[in-house]
Amino acid sequence: MKCYHCGGRLQRTTNHNRYGERHRWFRCHDCGGTTHTVERYVNPKPGPAPGTPKPGPAARGERNAGAVFTADNIIEVRRLAASGMMQKDIAAQFGMRPSYVSRIVNRHAWKHIE
Ligand SMILES: [Zn+2]
């Protein structure tokens, strides 16, 4: 990187401010000019940044962002299973894997519904 005041060579400098951030900037030895860069970042530390809210319990059921089925689907699956319908037929009807139907019927999944 060249000085944009005089075209001379720049020396990279780093300093730390009292907020624990690190700034990198450049100083030109030829003209004494300084160039601040956009680099300005908190010193990397392991783990989440301070002040990050602790994750709560996972969103269950429909409130989970990955949910495909609704509570009504689950109630219907359990109703059909209770009426004697084969789990693999229920799976085909809802587009689920049979193992997932089993998990719903045995209350391993969606256990907060009913
Ligand atoms: Zn310069």
Q: Structural class of the helices, strands and pairings?
A: alpha+beta
The shape, in one word, is rod-shaped
- Total of helices: 3
Biggest pleated-sheet summary: 3 strands, antiparallel
pLDDT < 50 stretches: none
Strand content: 15-25%
Q: What is the average of the pLDDT values?
A: 82
Total number of domains: 2
Ligand list: zinc ion
Number of distinct beta strands: 3
SSE string: EEEHHH
Describe it.
This protein is α+β, with helices and mostly antiparallel strands. It has 2 domains: 1-43, no CATH class; 61-105. The chain contains 3 helices and 3 strands. It has a 3-stranded antiparallel β-sheet, with no helix packed on it. Strand 1 and strand 2 (21-28) form a beta hairpin. Helix 2 (87-94) packs across helix 3. The radius of gyration is 30 Å and the shape is rod-shaped. The mean pLDDT is 82. Zinc ion binds at residues 3, 5-6, 8, 28, 30-31, 33.
Features:
21% strand, 2 domains, 114 residues, 3-stranded antiparallel beta sheet, binds zinc ion, alpha+beta, 3 helices, 3 strands, rod-shaped
Which helices and strands occur, and which strands form pairs?
Blueprint (H helix, E strand, L loop, with lengths): L9 E7 L4 E8 L5 E9 L28 H12 L4 H8 L3 H8 L9
Antiparallel strand pairs: 1-2, 2-3
Helix pairs in contact: 2-3
The structure holds zinc ion (ZN).
